Amino acid sequence: MLRTRTPTRVLTPSDLDAALGLCARNPADNVFVAARLLEAGMAGPGQSVVGYEEDGQLQSLCFAGANVVPVETTAYTRGPIADRVRKWNRRAASFLGPAEQVLGMWELLESGWPNVRAVRSNQPHLATRTPPSRLGVVGDERVRRARPGEVDLVLPAAEHMFTHEIGYPPYRGSSRGYRSLLQRLLDQGHTYVIVENGRVIFKADLGSVALDCAQIQGVWVSPELRGHGLGTSAMAAVVEHVLADVAPLATLYVNDFNTAARTTYERIGMTQIGTFATVLM
Fold it and tell me: Does domain 8-115 have CATH number 3.40.630?
């Protein structure tokens, strides 16, 4: 029987440079996957990467861990990749990434993931290379990196942000796993905070850093302080720190219905460069 070679396969450590090269075609879109690959390689715990090749050249890939994230997929490559992803039969917390790719992949796979909490199909993807101070926006001088020993201080703010944003708490029972995720961010210097009277009143994380790009996530202001300009001055300080010390490009994506956050990001000079989508399980 004649067997034809499938264009898709699970990538191995020898494919790391090719996968990072593919991500580098659009660093702002692909920083999440690039950061995961740099941190854990092609075969990190609980993750797989499937690639689509033509003439021996990697054209598209899909990362699957706690999140399923397509990279440089097209209408032509998504079908074969979706067939592979379907066979993994693993539980994912979300599908996320550039809207056209995520929604196109989701259309092929949604029957296999019946328990969907929400489809957020329009999340403006924002970026800046300009320090807010150049635009006349003064950053809050109290913003600083959270220290590695401050995980207990950061935990309540992170937990509140996650629950409000996702719709369910980040853990049930023991907080050990969630604390370890927070600890890693603190150890990397990727969490920024304002601490007043022994508690965090503002927090933002760098969820992914790679390819001269830093993706900001987990932005949170204590509820009683919202609407008074704290978010604008604090985020201005975060972006200032990021552009000076971490990467020349700062990005984030935001829900289209979060008008207050979108106004804040516009004030500090972030402009839309695309649209993301997230499917929450």
Answer: yes
